[in-house]
Amino acid sequence: MGNSSRKEAQDKAGEKKEKKGDKGEEEEEKTAEKEEVEVMEDVELPLGVDKLLKSGDPVLDLSYYKFRRLPRQVLNLEYLEKLYVCGNRLRNVPKGIARLQGLRTLALDFNKLDDIPLSVCQLTNLTCLYLGSNRLMSLPPEVRNLQNLRCLWVESNFFQRFPKQLCDLPNLRSLQIGDNRLRMLPSDLWRMESLRGLWLYGNRFQEFPRVLLKMEQLEILDMDRNRISEFPNLHHLPALRLFSYDHNPVKEPPRVGEEVLIVGEGAEEVLQARGRRREAKEHAEKEAEEAAAVAAAAASPVIHGILKKLRINSALNLAAAKKKVTNESVPSTTPTGDENGPQNNDGGAEFERQGVAFFEEAGLGYDDDSLEYEREELICEGEGYESYEGAELEYEREEMDYEYEGEE
């Protein structure tokens, strides 16, 4: 009985201690939350900041105000789209920032952040996130939630391994991860198919990461200030437009496409030689175009002269043929009865045959439009010849018009 009663007393005492412990933990949590709120409320706003907070502008810049904590008023500005808090002394970000779901850009670089709070990973509409120049060594797995992220800057931190979570961000186009401690890249980096710009300067690469040769969509690649002594042929990167390899122990510039701008030792000589080749090519093309233009100009008068001479000869021969037929078809002073009619008809038929044969020989075709054109040329060209008077030429033209009107 004594032992059992003593045990019951101990159990009751333990229960009381547990209850006190639970109450103590709850009180500590409440106290911590209360202190956090009080601390946030105690932040003294610098001159002019209160006006910024009340402006209603969707862009808020609180950079370089030396804030140790984010002002609590910011957490109520749910209309914000861009928030810049660079160059302060922030060690953490309050959980309430998750309420700012309208944020597209969040800049937290040049602070004293050791970790990225999960509340930032809940801002799923972010497209640009700047975390450079902090104390980060890793990124939380929840960073995968930022599926709309297009630009991420985490330069000047303490990453020793590439954050593989970034391979699960399908829309990431620009990744700035320079000035860290990377020695290699993950073999599945090629999965970042949207990536266009990759900054890897100031790391500890001793060899060029071969996985980069599979990333044919890359346009900008910065490998400055590493320890790479040899670069492969980068013609495998057809989209590349800028490659920087400065401050690496290389013996010669890497081989790249003609459209790629390179920056590094020996790059200037390569670019100058490329410029000379381009100028020589352009000069040769220009000379070829000029030669073709001269040849075309020289051939044009010859062709024009031949056509003009052909039109003149055509007009003269046609006029002569018409005159001959007309003279032969003039009726004699002695009446011959019905014989005049057939003679005239034969003369007209002979004229038509000669005219048609002449046009066929000249290759001008036998249609009304071409004949009308020749008639106009005949009027203009015929005036220059003394052997044909203007009146006679006019007479012949009228007769020719008459013949065609009758034929039509």
TrEMBL record:
Entry keyword set: Leucine-rich repeat, Repeat
Start-end of Acidic residues biased regions: 24-37
Biased composition (Basic and acidic residues): 1-23
Keyword Transit peptide carried by entry: no
Pfam families the UniProt entry points to: LRR_14 (PF23598)
A GO CC term assigned to this protein in UniProt: cytoplasm
InterPro entries listed in its UniProt record: Leu-rich_rpt (IPR001611), Leu-rich_rpt_typical-subtyp (IPR003591), LRR_dom_sf (IPR032675), LRR_domain-containing (IPR050216), LRR_R13L4/SHOC2-like (IPR055414)
Limits of the Disease resistance R13L4/SHOC-2-like LRR domain: 72-177
Region Disordered, residue ranges: 1-37, 323-349, 381-408
Compositionally biased spans, kind Polar residues: 327-346
Residue ranges that the Swiss-Prot or TrEMBL entry lists as coiled coil: none
UniProt xrefs under PANTHER family: LEUCINE-RICH REPEAT-CONTAINING PROTEIN 10B, PTHR48051
Protein's UniProt name: Disease resistance R13L4/SHOC-2-like LRR domain-containing protein
Native organism: Cyprinus carpio (Common carp)
